[in-house]
Structure formats: C-alpha cells, structure tokens
Amino acid sequence: MEYFKLVAALLTLAGSLAHAEALGTDFSYQGHLSAGGVPANGNYDLTFALFNTNTGGSQVGSPLTNAATPVSNGLFGVTLDFGSGVFTGSNLWLQIGVRTNGATVAFTVLSPRQAMLAVPYALYALTPAGPPGSAQDREGERDVWGREGGGRHAL
C-alpha cells in the first residue's frame, strides 16, 4: 500500500514538473502621476530607462515605452522587461518620462529617479554568475547522483 502511495505522489510531481515554465525577466512597476497637483486620469505615454547613477550618468540597456497607459486617480501599473543582461548586481535607477497619449512632443522626465531594489536583482540569481554558493563555488562536491563537479544539488 505504501508503495502505491509513493508511486502516486511521484506521478503527481512528475506531471506538475512537465508544465513548469522558466521564470521571465519582467517585473511590475506601480506609480502615482499628478498633473497640476491633481491626480491624473486618462491615457498617458510612459517611457522607462535605467541609469547607473541617480543623476546624470549613463543609460544601461534600452529604454522601454508603454503607449496609452491607463491612469486612474493618479495610479498606474505597468510590466517592464529590460531583458536578462541588465541586472548584474550594480546599483541602478529608473528614470520615467511622461506625455499625453498620442502627443508628438518630447517626454517630460520625472524627478527624482527611482532606485531599483531587491526584486529585480533576484533575476541576477538566474545567471551563471548567480548568487554566492552557486555551481562554480562547489567544485569537487558531488551532486545528488554522485557525480563530481557539483551543480545546484550538492550533497
């Protein structure tokens, strides 16, 4: 009887692993936008860029533009994806630009830039450089199958 419970549990686990998907590099950003001291309403074009300092500095990666972003009572939410090579552990700041939806004028850059915090940096853990204790730090250890060279499941 215990054997059948174990087999059933393993089949359930195997079925759920078959549907597992890789974690993407996108993340959510929410903000509050005011126009003339009053919470904004309507659709706005927003642009987002990463910089290596809170003022001046150099842009890191490519900018993203979200056209026709709905804003209600000043609140907006967007999903941003700067790709996998941007968050490398260095300090970064998010610069936001805004303009009325469909306008042909330049974006008004909002100030100050927003410091990027821990959640986007968790993406760094997905890279080969990874966090401390990653595979390259485990040379000579045996993995769960008893092979040399480590891996993420060292014994």
Keywords:
155 residues, alpha+beta, Immunoglobulin-like, 5-stranded antiparallel beta sheet, two-stranded antiparallel sheet, 2 helices, 33% strand, disordered C terminus
Question: Mind sketching the topology for me?
Answer:
Blueprint (H helix, E strand, L loop, with lengths): L1 H17 L8 E6 L1 E2 L2 E2 L2 E10 L7 E13 L3 E6 L12 E8 L7 E2 L4 E2 L2 H4 L34
Antiparallel strand pairs: 1-6, 2-3, 4-5, 4-7, 7-8, 7-9
* Cα end-to-end separation: 30 Å
CATH topology of the largest domain: Immunoglobulin-like
Mean of pLDDT = 77
Poorly predicted runs are 4-11, 134-138, 141-155
Q: Report the C-alpha radius of gyration, rounded.
A: 22 Å
What does this molecule look like?
This protein folds into two domains: 93 residues, Sandwich (Immunoglobulin-like), CATH 2.60.40; 28 residues, no CATH class. 14% of the residues lie in helices and 33% in strands. It has two helices and nine strands, in the order H-E-E-E-E-E-E-E-E-E-H.
